[in-house]
Amino acid sequence: MSTVTLSAARPAAVPGVLRLGLVRAAYELRVFFRERDAVVFIFAYPVIMMAIFATVFGQDGATVRAGDVEIPFAQYFLPGMLATGVMLSSFQSLAISISVERDEGGLKRLRGTPMPASAYFLGKIGQVLGSGLVQTAILLTVAATLFDVTLPSTVGDWATFAWVYLLGTAAGSVCGVAFSSVPRSGRSASAVVTPIVLVLQFVSGVFFQWDSLPTWMQQVASVFPLRWLVEGMQAAFLPDAVAGDVDLVTTALVLGVWFVAGLVIGARWFRWRRRDDG
pTM of the predicted model, to two decimals? Predict the structure, then answer.
């Protein structure tokens, strides 16, 4: 009589958090690009605003002058538009989209799956980086080809742009995740988030020269990350005479503090369910 030995089936290997995060990021990017209205707004808004302000302020060949240095208004506004683009693709996009997902019950269903919460947030960060890089590439291309803006020519300036961009994106992303719990519903999210971003743009030196703003407005803007994101971008894209005394150490500290604050607040108060769902 023969005996048959059955070997225990090995359980399938569970994908790691990083791999799940990459898969989730690919999914988030597909969903993002299917929302054509949001894509057009996020990609076109910085380009349109730069074109409007550069045309209005640059009439009859007017330039920004600092000592013996003159630059066109398009070049002066470019750092602010880059900073605005970062905030649109990170803070505003996540604060609104996560609120909508929560309101529709998507977050509740995700929480009931084996997927780690960290993989979900990694996917969101991947979506922000992917869409943000496309947006930045479009803005830089338009600025260089249509407005004859001179882009940085040194490795140091591009390195400054890179770390300011990445730190600003990280701070904006975690703050967007944390702030997504503020709107009472997905329908009210846009009405709550968008005015905050618009006000910060006007007081942070995005649309107007920083020195022309009232002192109290400068003090208020200096508390928030957008002002320092603008200043970091100016250090990379403007001549020293025009950018002024840029404090990159403070820029890094403020953005870093907002990144940590966003992490702490998000970890403490992030909600997976609607307010009326327990």
Answer: 0.88
